[in-house]
TrEMBL record:
This is Sulfatase. Belongs to the sulfatase family. Residues 68-90 are annotated as: Disordered. Residues 3-337 form the Sulfatase N-terminal domain. It comes from Halobellus litoreus.
Length: 466
């Protein structure tokens, strides 16, 4: 069994060529799509970085695994050994392996389990539990003329991640492996050259924010607001997005090198490849620039691509099914021929990969816990956003937002006041979902709202609202 999971930080789905983007950002990912299925409605179950990866590796939503934000509230994941003073672990001995994580599933099956990641910049002990090999490539601490200080913040570079991943694959003894390759790029700060950025300056801008919205945003005194980020015109916005696109192109090049290694060594066809992101990035659609801070699609919707082994069925193309990254762990277990641990909460995507006619969900639910505390429910037609803590945007973020997603994909026309019946109906579904999926007596996202989300607690003294 060969599995490659490619995790790209801050990658929006709508900036990938195969998802319809006009700029030449992702030629290698687009080529992968020729052998794969792309999910158009793929959302991370939790965002941003730490909650997203907790959901991915635990196979459980944040409401069950307990990781809903960054900082102190993210350090412990909900597992039996974290609930007791017992010196050993209950995880391995319980019948049915209910608490195994995705890396543990491979480890316990004696399949080489390799992580190559920039994630150590977010300390999280649960993330490093039970890998055969975990590599943390380190860049030289060079001084750079970027506003965030030095290159070590954006470490390691995509080039180094791919070099390290290939080095590990060359040392694999046998025909099986699980390789998790996590790319920090294209997360800010954007450090591409003038020539790399120039390639994207003629790419059409999105319709929002308009010039009128920009003028309104410049009145906001807020973290990552237009004034703080130097966004005066749509020309300034174009420069920011062009730099972001250049980072995506740079990362795509090195992702392509990793895929090419599999092809050149004859391993590509029989490798299950999944490519996704931990969250996206917003560029002023709702007032914040170069930031992931909400359950809007700019933050929550990412590319979700599955290329199965060549000897398994596939109906190549796109899917409209609603999925989250909690579905990846049971999908991988399915291809491995293993039953998912009892506590996992996702569903295998394999039936949908094999046939576009396979049944899907009527709705999905996802959370965000940095700067704000929000939960959203997404149906094929609607999205309801429930804000439990508005962060620094008290008075701007309403308690409820309702969007008709087919007519309003940029989430600009809030219909909550016009459709109170639908708001009530969708909120009832949210409540029932929470009751089904939480494992403790307290909803962890509500606890985040009570204590204040990470980011908000750090910046609130400097930004008192908008």
């Amino acid at each position: 069994m060969r599995v490659l999971f490619i995790d790209i930080d801050s990658l929006r789905a709508d900036h990938v060529g195969g998802y319809g983007y006009a700029g030449p950002t992702t030629p290698n990912i687009d080529e992968l799509l020729d052998d794969a299925v792309a999910f158009e409605r793929g959302y991370v179950a939790n965002s941003p970085c730490m909650p997203s990866r907790a959901a991915l590796t635990s196979g459980r939503f944040g409401i069950a695994n307990g990781v809903e934000t960054h900082g102190q509230q993210s350090q412990r994941i909900d597992r039996p050994e974290n609930r007791t003073d017992w010196a050993g672990s209950w995880t391995e001995n319980q019948p049915g392996r209910p608490w195994w994580t995705l890396p543990e599933l491979f480890f316990q099956n004696r399949i080489p389990t390799i992580g190559v990641s920039s994630f150590p910049r977010h300390p999280a002990p649960w993330f490093y539990h039970v890998w055969h090999t975990f590599r943390q490539p380190q860049e030289p601490d060079e001084e750079m003329t970027v506003e965030w200080g030095h290159v070590s913040f954006q470490t390691p570079r995509a080039e180094t991640v791919t070099d390290t991943a290939i080095e590990e694959l060359e040392s694999v003894d046998g025909d099986s492996f699980f390789l998790y390759a996590q790319y920090w790029d294209p997360h800010a700060p954007y450090n591409r050259s003038e020539d790399e950025i120039e390639r994207f300056r003629d790419t059409p801008l999105p319709p929002h924010p308009t010039e009128e919205q920009l003028a309104e945003h410049r009145e906001w005194d807020t973290l990552r607001g237009a004034s703080q980020e130097g966004i005066e015109t749509r020309g300034d916005l174009n420069e920011m997005i062009s730099a972001y696109d250049a980072e995506i192109r740079y990362t795509d090049h090195h992702v392509g090198r990793l895929i090419e290694y599999l092809k050149s060594t004859g391993q590509y066809d029989e490798t299950l490849i999944i490519l996704s992101g931990d969250h996206g990035e917003e560029f002023g659609e709702h007032g914040l620039y170069r930031e992931h801070w909400s359950t809007h699609d700019g933050t929550q919707r990412v590319p979700m691509i599955v290329k199965p082994p060549a000897d398994t069925p596939i109906e190549q193309g796109t899917r409209e099914h609603l999925i989250t990254n909690v579905d990846f762990a049971p999908t991988i277990a399915d291809y491995l021929g293993e039953s998912p641990p009892a506590r996992w909460q996702g569903a295998s995507l394999r039936p949908i990969v094999e046939s576009s006619d396979a049944a899907g969900r009527d709705a999905i639910v996802f959370d965000h816990g940095l700067y704000t505390a929000q939960r959203a429910i997404r149906t094929p037609d609607w999205k309801l956003v429930r804000t439990y803590h508005p962060g620094m945007w008290d008075g701007v973020l309403p308690e409820y937002q309702l969007y008709e997603m087919n007519d309003d994909p940029w989430e600009q026309n809030d219909l909550a006041a016009d459709r109170p019946d639908l708001v009530d109906s969708l909120e009832e579904e949210l409540i029932l979902w929470a009751e089904r999926h939480r494992t403790g007596s307290v909803d962890p996202l509500r606890r985040v709202a009570e204590r204040g989300p990470s980011g908000y607690n750090s910046f609130k003294d400097g930004f008192e609202g908008v």
